[in-house]
């Protein structure tokens, strides 16, 4: 196996005093990710090195960090595919807890503020559903890509507006607000628009588009923010009426198998 030694410069901060930089050397084989490199350093060079990670598959969004100046997931970035030396920093626009660990609490608080869940007038049905809500494929397509958000914070760290204005909600919470506003099952536009239309709402977005460029799941939060502006204008000037939420699907009284569709296989777990 061909091994290359790659220099790695890492931001260090212990939560007290002044931050510093430390340089290490990592033996790198083909296919080795930044997360693998950090694990090697922690095991063989410095056990105090801190970062956050979990799934190692680009799903949990825990290992976001600044890699050679770009917000990326450490588990999805191969060391030999980026230009040496490797420079690792915590995500900007967040305070730092330790080394490469950003404090994401403020982002989650903003996320919760926009009420990222289905809001219905018939709350009893939500608590004790009689059946699922009807929704067409075309209706689902309006919000589907935004449901891929893994809350990694990369879009927030790349946002130039958020870097200079802490009041701005940011691309992640606003995209998730639009995800539910665009959902035909939702009836919470008026309730949700109160936090969205506050001083930190979508009108502060300069449409730089960096949030969409860095998203590891190819979600387009910049598009969501622009669509939300349009939705607010249409409803404010009464050019679009509020529609009732999707109806409840009727219960299936008698189901008949279709002869052109093969039967489902036997269940493996009973």
Entry keywords:
single chain, 270 residues, alpha+beta, 10 helices, 7 strands, 30% helix, globular
Write up this protein:
This protein has 270 residues and is an alpha+beta fold. The protein is built from 10 helices and 7 strands. The protein has helices spanning 34-44, 105-113, 123-127, 137-141, 154-158, 160-164, 171-181, 189-196, 210-214, 221-236, and strands at 3-12, 20-29, 64-67, 70-73, 86-89, 96-98, 101-102. The strands form 2 sheets. It has a 5-stranded mixed β-sheet with strand order 2-1-5-3-4. A hairpin with a 7-residue loop joins strand 1 (3-12) and strand 2 (20-29). The termini are far apart. The model has no long low-confidence stretch (mean pLDDT 94).
Share of residues in strands? 5-15%
Residues in helices, as a percent range: 25-40%
* Total of helices: 10
Instruction: Going across the biggest sheet, name each strand in turn.
Output: 2-1-5-3-4
Compute the CA-based radius of gyration. Answer: 23 Å
Unreliable residue stretches: none
Helix and strand content put the structural class at alpha+beta
**Apparent shape:** globular
By DSSP, the count of extended strands is 7
The CA-CA distance between the termini, in Å, is: 47 Å
**Mean pLDDT reading:** 94
Order of helical and strand elements: EEHEEEEEHHHHHHHHH
The largest sheet, given as strand count, sense and whether it forms a barrel, is:
5 strands, mixed
